Amino acid sequence: xxxxxxxxxxxxxxxxxxxxxxxxxxxxxxxxxxxxxxxxxxxxxxxxxxxxxxxxxxxxxxxxxxxxxxxxxxxxxxxxxxxxxxxxxxxxxxxxxxxxxxxxxxxxxxxxxxxxxxxxxxxxxxxxxxxxxxxxxxxxxxxxxxxxxxxxxxxxxxxxxxxxxxxxxxxxxxxxxxxxxxxxxxxxxxxxxxxxxxxxxxxxxxxxxxxxxxxxxxxxxxxxxxxxxxxxxxxxxxxxxxxxxxxxxxxxxxxxxxxxxxxxxxxxxxxxxxxxxxxxxxxxxxxxxxxxxxxxxxxxxxxxxxxxxxxxxxxxxxxxxxxxxxxxxxxxxxxxxxxxxxxxxxxxxxxxxxxxxxxxxx
Length: 362
Hints:
Layout: H1 9-36, H2 43-52, H3 55-70, H4 73-102, H5 114-191, H6 195-214, E1 220-222, H7 223-241, E2 245-250, E3 259-261, H8 266-277, E4 284-293, E5 296-303, H9 318-332, E6 337-342, E7 348-355
Parallel strand pairs: 2-4
Antiparallel strand pairs: 1-3, 4-5, 5-7, 6-7
Helix pairs in contact: 1-2, 1-3, 3-4, 3-5, 4-5, 5-6, 5-9, 6-7, 8-9
């Protein structure tokens, strides 16, 4: 990015408009002054000449703005003084030329150019200093504002990249976790001589990993895709637990397109299988539901297993729940919650709330 960007079209229009406004104001004052002294002829020409007299300042404003960026006033004031005097001399020459050629009120005996230039220079050099200084000051303020905005934009970009990197690291933490647990399930089937089921589970795991790779670049997916991924994971687990694992999904179709963090359900479901279903000889049911209240999406994962042990609040809840909690906080901050508790009827419920984000209509 250019540290000193050129004047843009919008800025050029503003500069032209400001100096045109000064020109019209000065021209109006000149016309009223002449009319108050009884000189009424050629006032239109006087108005146009006085308006045009300010035109050079519109041309040199971008130059002065550039000089303000290249040469800070505190360290390079002699350079600015030279430019100011030079611009003042050029402005005086411009006014002298206009007066000699077009001023309808100039005296017929007035010498031509040199005396007019000298008079304008000494009369207008102070005004040139003031105008040059004003342009320097405004340019410095605008430049400081632009630099601050650029720094804020860059900081926001870096923070976003850092946040995405952290989220990606958290997501990748989940993948080997469920892969390890699934491989343990496959090993358990092999030890039980259920080789056919083990082969089916390997095929299912292959499909699950392919889906995981497909969504790897994405931090968010649709709720439908997330539930489909979890369903595939549960199908694999069902090969091991057979009828001991019952599954119930209740996701309204109108919530299918809601955006959720990818792999946000799987760690919770895996916890339910490991601590709720595998711990009971008769197995149990895992229920996944989704609901909305105003602009909030609530996802619930429940099991009817033995529940959390007394005093569990003071202990770790494992990598899966901790990962989900951290990712929700990273995505949504205080707009999300994760609640883990025993149900009155037995088992555990994990409820997470997050903002309901639907894709924009095309």
